[in-house]
Amino acid sequence: MPLLTRYHIKMGLMYFILALFMGxxxxxxxxxxxxxxxxxxxxxFFHFLxxxxxxxxxxxxxxxxxPKRSKEKPRGNVVIGWTAFxxxxxxxxxxxxxxxxxxxxxxxxxxxxxxxxxxxQVTAGWLFVINIWGRVKER
Amino acid sequence: MPKLSVYMIRFSLxxxxxxxxxxxxxxxxKGFPIxxxxxxxxxxxxxxxxxxxxxxxxxGVAFWIVPxxxxxxxxxxxxxxxxxxxLFNIGLWLVIFGQNWLVLGGRIVMFSAVALFAIYLFPRIxxxxx
Lengths: 139, 130
Hints:
The complex is a heterodimer of chains A (139) and B (130). Chain A has 139 residues and is an all-alpha fold.
């Protein structure tokens, strides 16, 4: 299994755990009268699951299992692959902090963090698409 | 990778890019509100990523890696799967771009597509040797 795939899958597992922990906190919030700001984690919960876990696992496994592009570059441009990995995960982490903190402190630096998170995640998505495109082919 | 998987996976990749771009705009709009109307794109963002990206990718990969038949046609009644692919995407576009009855129509078309795909794939869910 390539190194990039291992990083994707291990990070994916981290997001899976984090998301389920958030799921616990979200359900506990009304029961234990926790801060109402806890509910700002709901979109983070969904995105950690769908992007951090499911999409990241798909990206990692596709990098590993999809048909080789060529003998010289079997897995496409690995630098683009790593850049996508870094952008996706920093972008998601920024969202994890930025989403609740931008509600608690509006018009602060956290609003910029959300914008940066958006740019990083969109960049990661398109970099993955560009890099894997040539490997989606008939043998 | 068979041709149908190439089509399904490439379509799903385009939906991933589009879905994430719309999601990025919505997220950025949370930080610095540009337009309230961006929130109207939320259902399209969800539709593109849940159905266009994840579901279609799974269908494309399933068509590729699930055991084939030992004799021709190795992929079985592939016409069913092709029809499913076409219907699935027409249904998705109807749901995304339509309103009211068109959305209902889109959901029915997508339901038909998935039912066809299940009918197609069932015989291929078997041990590799058979």
